Amino acid sequence: MKKFYVTTPIYYVNDVPHIGHAYTTVAADVMARYKRLHGYKTFFLTGTDEHGQKVEKAARAQSKTPKELADSVVVRFQELWNRLNISHDHFVRTTDDYHEKAVQELFKLIQEKGDIYLGEYEGWYCTPCETFWSEGQQLEGNLCPDCGRPTEKVKEPSYFFRLSKYQDALLEFYREHPDFVLPESRMNEIVSFVKMGLKDLSISRTTFKWGIPVPGDPDHVIYVWFDALFNYVSAAGYGWNHHRFETFWPADLHIIGKDILRFHAIYWPAFLMSAGLPLPRRVFAHGWWTIEGQKMSKSLRNVVDPHRLIEEYGTDALRYFLLREVPFGLDGDFSHRAMAHRINSDLANDLGNLLYRSLTMVLKYFKGEVPQPSGPGGELAQLAQAVIKDLDHLMDQQAFNRALERLWDLVKGTNKYIDSSAPWNLAREKRQAELATVIYNILEGCRIIALLISPFMPQKAQEMWDQLGVEGHIVEASMDQAAWGGLKPGTRVKKGKPLFPRLDEKAIVEKIERELASTQEPQEEEVTIDEFARMKLVVAQILQAEKVPRSRKLIKLLVDTGSDRRTVVAGIGEHYSPQDLVGKKVVIVANLKPAKLMGIQSRGMILAATWDRGMKVLEVPQNTPVGTQVR
Ligand code: ME8
């Protein structure tokens, strides 16, 4: 039997689920349902990542133990997956016993192979990303190159995984499996990254406790990514369910966001190579959602809270929108305007209306009974076959939005077929046999559409089947039923409510705009342009610099402002030494009231960017003349 194993990332429990998590999980669900429809024995895995410093910190902030925090957040994920109709076969938690055991066993196995050694880690750690960085990889000011947040210096004994040893094997693997990472552009990024050289990876920590202990050395806990990645094999049965593991491993598809691609495309295959396990077939890294044109933030999250979206638009409309709106792999923006518009045009107008008018006609012309056709399905049947074939190819590339676009060719094609065959004329002219064929074809088109949309919109697909009078649960259907002619003449249709009621787009947009305005961060005091213009900002060059005696912070500068040379005292001594400043072109507030600092008269102020750990004076390009006004 054909098998298919698909996963989502396991989500951190430091935070409740949001639209980004829903996106990945819906995509994986659609893949799983599509494969089940095609007769694959399918294993669909999702779950939660519960160890690590990030979770420990979040728990502390809420005065909970990490496990208490995890227990409460896991329920939130499970509730949401229920409401989104996620059909996972297993939910893994990294605090599950079988997982912890498997990770320890794999650690030992890799250690026995000689790929783990004890050393000392000295470098920087970004807790939000749970990532180690070397000095050279960081951004200036000790900032994480991925998320831009400050990193923390760590120096501690650590176990290392010999990642460097796998550099060539990885490159060869990528060469042989060019589809291992999709989209293609992401594969290229990974190849370039690996070609730049891989360093051994620190895989244990001693400075906190919330993790799986290193076997034989409980002062160390296993690095959260080493722990987390192995969920894909532990949950598949490694070490506790041999049959399941043999059936499903290797995974066919890991769906993840682009933020965690390096872990999945470099570390993960290297760990598996070392453990002697087969490698997954594909990692698909999808893009990033912004919200109403802005980066997702806590306040914006309410606007797109998945529960709220489900209440306002319905589960299936949300599932459809997520996968239809943006090509899988690219970034996209989530807006209520776009969502309402999509629902009205694709779901209410095209699909809902198709079913509604089809059922109205069968009720009107055949008393609600599917008529016996007297001819073949013709062009519509051919279109259905062509669409089914194309879907296969597109779904194998995880091109969800193109698959839906193609599916809509059939929805629109069936609507067009109604218009061009004009059953109302056939009825008026009493061409009963032709009318029966046309109505049959239309209903058969609807039935096949229901089957094909069922992975994307399982509830609405079921409603379509029910209204068409087709018996049974669509989730149990198989692609054999997509063959033309499956609808039995004589079936009684059961016309119900419109599938997707039309939305008032204008009212929705107005409501969201009001809400966005009120959720903005508290407004800072505004200044008028005239008020700003009172400040004289000019480009000045630093001619001399010296430390102010007995002061840690102050540096005395002599600057050329174009119109004069003057002394400015600046509080930048903790971040700059005097000799680094000479020659720099900077911006000064030239008309600031003079002030005395440590007995020195300062005339002006240098502009600098400051944050909790650092400071940079604002420099202007060297070819800017001194005295130039900054506006
Ligand atoms: O990284 N747009 O967990 P996590 C699209 N525990 N997708 C988004 C998104 C956005 N704005 N925000 C989040 C972890 N996601 C690790 C994974 S796997 C072995 C360990 C989705 O809770 C996207 O799938 O930070 C991203 O990869 C994932 O949530 C990160 O979830």
Mean pLDDT: 95
Please tally the β strands and state the result. Answer: 25
Shape: globular
The rounded distance between the terminal residues' Cα atoms is 70 Å
Number of helices: 22
CATH architecture of the domain at 341-482: Orthogonal Bundle
**Spatial strand order of the main sheet:** 3-2-1-12-13-7
Largest sheet: 6 strands, parallel
Full CATH superfamily name of the domain at 341-482: Isoleucyl-tRNA Synthetase, Domain 1
List the helices and strands and how they pair.
Layout: E1 3-12, H1 19-37, E2 41-49, H2 53-61, H3 66-83, E3 90-93, H4 97-112, E4 116-126, E5 131-133, E6 152-161, H5 167-176, E7 181-182, H6 184-195, E8 201-202, E9 204-205, E10 213-214, E11 217-222, H7 224-229, H8 231-234, H9 242-248, E12 253-257, H10 261-275, E13 283-286, E14 289-291, H11 298-303, H12 306-313, H13 315-325, E15 332-334, H14 336-366, H15 378-396, H16 400-421, H17 423-428, H18 432-453, H19 458-468, H20 505-519, H21 529-533, E16 537-547, E17 555-560, E18 565-570, H22 578-581, E19 585-589, E20 595-597, E21 600-602, E22 605-606, E23 608-611, E24 614-617, E25 629-630
Parallel strand pairs: 1-2, 1-12, 2-3, 7-13, 12-13, 14-15
Antiparallel strand pairs: 4-5, 4-6, 6-8, 9-11, 10-11, 16-17, 16-19, 16-25, 17-18, 19-22, 20-21, 23-24
The structure holds ligand ME8.
